[in-house]
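#struct-help
A.M.: can someone run this one for me? Single chain, 515 residues.
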Amino acid sequence: MRNLEAFNLSWYAIGKQAERFRDHLALEIIGPPLPNLTKTNWCYKELDLAIRAIACGLINKGLEKGDFVLLRLNSDVSFALSFFGAIAAGLVPVPLSPHLTSHEIDFFVQDTGAKWLIGAPNLSVCKQADCTLIPLDEIIDFVHECEPMAYAQTKAETPAFLLYTSGTTSHPKGVLHAQRVILGRIPMREGWHNIGVTDRVLHAGDFNWSYTLGVGLMDPWAMGGTALIYHGEKSPALWPELIESQNVTVFAAVPGVYRQILKYGHANKQQFVTLRHGLSAGEALPEVLHEQWQQKTGAKLYEAMGQSEISTYVSTAPGLDVPAGAKGRIQRGRKIIILPNEEASEQTNPMACKPNEQGLIAIHRSDPGLMLGYWDQKKGSPSSYEGEWFLTGDLGSIDRDHNLTHYGRVDEIMNASGYRVSPLEVENALLENSHVLEAGVFENQIRPDLSIIEAVLVLKPSQLTENEVIEQLTAQLQKKLAPYKHPKRYHVVASLPRNKTGKVMRQQLHNYIET
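D.P.: on it. Structure tokens below:
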């Protein structure tokens, strides 16, 4: 697989399918069309021609194979066309969040050295004089005016795109993916999303994120299905309406979106008749939220765990029986082991842990979904690789049936009275209380020789007072967790601090609460 002489991600996702499913619907736009691009339904052949025409226009403009090109676009059809068009030309697109400021964009220009930026007219762009703006209108003109070129003759190991992590504690770091990354998504079909030719897939996130980019576009196209892109303002009440009106069969979002739909969306089972299932990733899916969603909608949620460096590799799936407490099963074909946390930084090829022993989750270098590397290696963890293994930074254990239990990030594990405590375990226990909507926990060192666990809660409307809920929680935790895992202090807030992808920023909980 790594020695493929000619392999292009855009060809695999679109060009190849244009030969197989020529007139099958590949892309459907929901909402008002873009100016100068009124087409709302694209079959595979039409999408293939548009992608290759954009590739031709970019090359004619002076961009050269291997050039980085920043994408400063909204999460609409313009992103899909520009991203895959750039890869079809052999360029390396760098998706950026539509919420960034000009100052933030300057960082990405400097970090990548990019000389080109495709920008939407309503979004601020960089101030760097040596970075040339390509207006979105020009990209749309390419679709109508340029002769489609052949897909660039890239190889499996050729860089395809560069994604940036959220950067919650420092500057974001770039994750460089190869053309082969789309082959690394093949195990996800059986092991997680089960997307096929007849599916209509809708994702609630922004396209600068690997979760949305993969499940929202790459996966439905690689499987010959239909990707749906919504143009317009998003709200919790919107998603049930779209699922019903657009006959959505697979919906993907972060747990926070499912929580908001249940709280504000006024959803009912009639709206979810066509929905085969929902997909969840990006942060832990509380079991209580899954149960509430299934009760309200009649549809199941299937969860996956991963990261920007490899996307997902552990998941639940239709027909898969996973034991309680496990995050999911290692997807077939993945080479995943648990390495001893204490030894991983000292040995080139440390021995794997025994079944059910806790340690560092590690992925073999041979996985086609694994990144080429960090764009600036100095921004990566100093122990990102040990021999042939990529260390994810997550703690877990694997049983004899390849089910993985996740204990959280290494740098988020708490120390309470000398014991190591997973924040996920404590948060999940708190969320079992029917009055708790959201929960986050953190370690607070109150003096040099003492650290305690504190909990930050968002409560549902209730007749109980805050103190009564906390008393109830304290009693419940006595039956659920060892005493050293119990929060010693509780704080009730209106919302938890989250990053742009919806993850709770535990590092900010200490400064977020009122002291």
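A.M.: thanks! The longest strand covers residues 436-447.
D.P.: also worth noting: The CA atoms of residues 11 and 156 lie 12 Å apart.
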